[in-house]
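FAQ

Q: What does a record look like?
A: Structure on top, sequence underneath. For example:
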């Protein structure tokens, strides 16, 4: 079929043609944002899910909702390859600090003074056309330290300015599990203070299933501070809708049997659904995607997933860690008990405990229940078996 009208969009954070199955979270976002703007309590959120389940797309959706509700939106960037503690905190502080002139413009002198006092360790100027508060050049990068509580002070100052303006602020952060523990602690402490003072700042983050453990390790009160909504694979009906609605809009049909085939193969994972839709569309020649088209798309889907979704996942791993993953893959999709995996490796559980811990730390595997381990990348067992051949 015409590739120009292909509606499917497989890729990291690429907006889907139809965001299905997430209405309940959409309304939770709206409520949390609405309550925050009114300085009422609502928990910060960390969206938790496997690779490709739709976390980034949903986080972007939360940002869009926040903008529609007239929030200021700050998007924090994490980088798995950067382990230097403090870099993230400093960058985030810079972005939050940039809101200050706009939020403080025209506020009463008494309020400005109070905000200035909160930020007494920073060098600041009053801008004459307003008046408003502004940081002196470079002052944030030299004054922000993840351990000094300066990020918290910044949250308080900016939060108070926003409250005066009756505005909300959304801080959105993807791949939170990649933050160095020092930055994660500073972020959680700042979010905690925002809660205690009922400031209109909401934090929504996203991360892999190892994130709740990391957050609790960083600050033990994280369990109470955050809601951790799990992002699960789509239900069968939603997976069908994700394929049918975009094709029907383009005047294309999918045969029932073809639809069943694709939905079963994708196991509800949004990335896989986009990939199946995309390839089946490419293969089909008429105005209907037939079961033969769907079957013919299989090898293309596999090749594309290997190249775009799976490859590179093991680049940060040691040979011993890869060996551990292969042992898990031999046992099947999982979850598997740590004892079973150790046995497969011909070792005892304690002999391989360092590898297991490091793989959890790197987000490759997680523990869905005590003593059990599962892959954090969907169908990773099948991929490893393919590349082993
Ligand atoms: N609810 C949804 N309905 C249909 N397609 C979706 C949905 N959510 C995400 N997708 C599609 O799935 C793919 C993966 O989405 P996204 O990048 O948000 O996943 P992710 O969980 O952030 O993955 P990763 O952990 O690898 O960063 C994209 O192509 C996106 O368009
Ligand atoms: Mg993502």
């Amino acid at each position: 079929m015409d590739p120009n009208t292909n509606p499917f969009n497989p890729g990291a954070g690429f907006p889907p043609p139809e965001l299905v199955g997430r209405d309940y979270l959409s309304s939770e976002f709206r409520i949390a944002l609405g309550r925050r703007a009114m300085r009422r309590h609502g928990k910060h959120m960390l969206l938790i899910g496997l690779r490709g389940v739709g976390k980034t797309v949903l986080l972007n959706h939360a940002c869009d909702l926040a903008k529609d509700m007239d929030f200021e939106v700050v998007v924090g960037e994490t980088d798995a390859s950067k382990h230097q503690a403090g870099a993230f905190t400093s960058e985030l502080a810079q972005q939050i600090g940039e809101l200050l002139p706009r939020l403080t413009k025209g506020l009463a002198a008494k309020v400005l003074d109070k905000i200035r006092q909160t930020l007494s360790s920073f060098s600041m100027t009053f801008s004459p056309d307003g008046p408003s508060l502004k940081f002196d050049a470079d002052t944030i990068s030299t004054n922000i330290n993840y351990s000094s509580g300066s990020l918290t002070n910044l949250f308080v100052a900016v939060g108070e300015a926003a409250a005066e303006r009756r505005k909300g602020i959304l801080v959105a952060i993807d791949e939170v599990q990649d933050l160095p523990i020092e930055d994660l602690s500073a972020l959680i402490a700042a979010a905690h203070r925002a809660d205690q003072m009922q400031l209109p700042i909401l934090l929504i983050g996203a991360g892999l299933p190892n994130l709740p453990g990391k957050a609790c390790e960083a600050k033990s009160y994280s369990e109470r501070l955050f809601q951790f909504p799990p992002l699960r694979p789509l239900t069968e009906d939603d997976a069908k809708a994700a394929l049918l609605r975009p094709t029907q809009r383009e005047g294309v049909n999918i045969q029932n049997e073809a639809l069943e085939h694709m939905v079963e193969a994708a196991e509800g994972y949004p990335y896989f659904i986009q990939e199946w839709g995309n390839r089946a569309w490419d293969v089909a020649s008429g105005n209907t995607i037939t079961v033969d088209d769907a079957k013919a798309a299989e090898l293309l889907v596999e090749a594309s997933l290997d190249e775009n979704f799976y490859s590179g996942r093991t680049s940060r791993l040691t040979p011993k860690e890869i060996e551990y993953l292969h042992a898990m893959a031999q046992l099947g999709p999982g979850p598997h008990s740590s004892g079973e995996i150790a046995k497969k490796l011909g070792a005892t559980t304690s002999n391989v405990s360092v590898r297991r811990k490091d793989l959890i730390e790197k987000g490759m595997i997680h523990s869905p229940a005590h003593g059990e381990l599962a892959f954090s990348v969907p169908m990773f067992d099948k991929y490893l078996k393919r590349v082993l051949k």
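Q: Is there anything notable about this one?
A: The mean pLDDT is 92.
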